[in-house]
């Protein structure tokens, strides 16, 4: 996984955490839900990138 992809996913998760907390503090359930969605999306993207990394490593292992 490239450094930029990792950074983008972490930023998205952090942004989601912020939105979720802001929604909780202000009593806005829609903002809170949007924050949860952003966090889940960032996490899912990270899992996908990690799976690609694992496949790439497996190919390298068996190629040699």
UniProtKB/TrEMBL annotation:
Residues 1-64 are annotated as: Disordered. Residues 50-64 have a biased composition (Basic and acidic residues). InterPro entries: CsbD, YjbJ_sf. Residues 5-56 form the CsbD-like domain. SUPFAM superfamilies: Hypothetical protein YjbJ (SSF69047). Belongs to the UPF0337 (CsbD) family. This is CsbD family protein. It comes from Actinomadura chokoriensis. The lineage of its organism: Bacteria, Bacillati, Actinomycetota, Actinomycetes, Streptosporangiales.
């Amino acid at each position: 996984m490239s450094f930029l992809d990792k950074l983008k996913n972490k930023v998205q998760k952090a942004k989601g955490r912020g939105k979720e907390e802001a929604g909780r503090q202000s009593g806005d359930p829609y903002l809170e839900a949007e924050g949860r969605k952003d966090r889940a999306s960032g996490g899912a993207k990270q899992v996908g990138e990690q799976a690609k990394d694992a496949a790439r490593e497996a190919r390298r292992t068996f190629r040699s």
